[in-house]
Amino acid sequence: MADYVGAIDQGTTSSRFIIFDRRGNIVATAQREHEQIYPRPGHVEHDPAEIWRNTQIVMREAMESAEIQPSDLVSIGITNQRETTLIWDPRTGQPLHNALVWQDTRVDGLVARFARDGGKDRFRAVTGLPLASYFSGLKLAWLLDAVPGAREKAQAGDVLFGNIDAWLVWNLTGGAQGGLHVTDVTNASRTQLMALKTLDWDEGMLSAFGIPRTMLPKIVSSSEVYGESRTPFVGVPIAGILGDQQAALFGQTCFKPGEAKNTYGTGCFVLMNTGADPVPSTSGLVTTVGYKLDGKPPVYALEGSIAITGALVQWLRDNLGIIRDSGDIEGLARTVSDNGDVYFVPAFSGLYAPHWRESARGIIAGLTRYANKGHIARAALEATAYQTREVLEAMAKDSGIDIKELRTDGGMVRNDLLMQFQADILDVPVVRPKVTETTALGAAYAAGLATGYWNSPDDLISNWGVDHRWHPNMAAEQRNTLFTAWTKAVERSFDWTTPRE
What we know:
By secondary structure, this protein is of the alpha+beta class.
């Protein structure tokens, strides 16, 4: 009898395979980083072939470490970095270009061009999304024009498009020998090509962006058996797909309207379950699909995406060298008692929610001779908490629901200093669950539900438990003073660059 569920967690910086048992506990894990490619300022790329190679390696490594056979897996789920865009030849399986990562800003000119006729919100009513360099559709349009012959091949049905989930499923199920070309509703909702209400590709969006429908994957639910793997394991059902942030919402069991989570990774992503109806945003958030179980109506969510949080810690490590390891940031920040009036706005790729300013760039404000690297480290951590507060305030405004607590996950939740400051600046409790790998767990849950490993969402709720809860202990006056200064710093970052077409 199969005893476990596997989850591929393909993220911005690495690929992992995690094996879970029925209680949602981790049985085995393996991880491998891939190269971050920066051809020009603002351009960020990944090699899709490297990602596929690494995915196969970590799948084998995790299974070997736990001495588990493919027959021990009831199913496999997939969660992935969203919006990262690639095209490939279905006959050879070769990508036609490096994948354009979600952080990539090369389509700023296209954003500006489309926004001139109707503004940045011209497509919100259909897709739930503002015009921004973030989403896949304009990246795909750029690739079709930039790669010689790509548009003609796409129109002839000789090019396939997908976010990373579609690329992995296609390869897992056979690749050029009959691989399935599918994407789930959560990933499709990040392309700006899918209509939120119909959950199908929208002809008006395809026409506006010049996208041939023949190259698009079939849209499926987040939890159903799509097919069986053919490599690296034979015969294991592929049964769950969720974009990484929706997977974390699912893994945190935020199944009721008003429940919210924040994932602290390369960026930060706050999602709130809004129930059966999409809630339009007037406060700079995006309306997206939270998840859809097979045969059931979709569940929608409001989302605030923050581009740079954990990536800022990596930048301090790799570009400035003021820490050796990302985990050193907390110790360095604790060498000072406060931020020394230093504020770090990490608008390296512009600002996402709730501002949506592609022309913003990173700044450090408030520097004096008093400031040292400890203050800069503390300001970098605090930037994550300030940006999260901006998003949650917008979320409360749009939904009419005040957050009672914030469920957290991701690599940065091990940073106690950050989590306490997050609770202080929000003035609500911040909760870390017992299993913090909720992104992979959500994908495993989706796959396990589809194959009967878990019977219902109630089984998943019973698995969730609290590891630690931080309560706010900051005076209101101090909280307001800090956030007011942060707001001033953010305004200084605006309009640093001029978009080019």
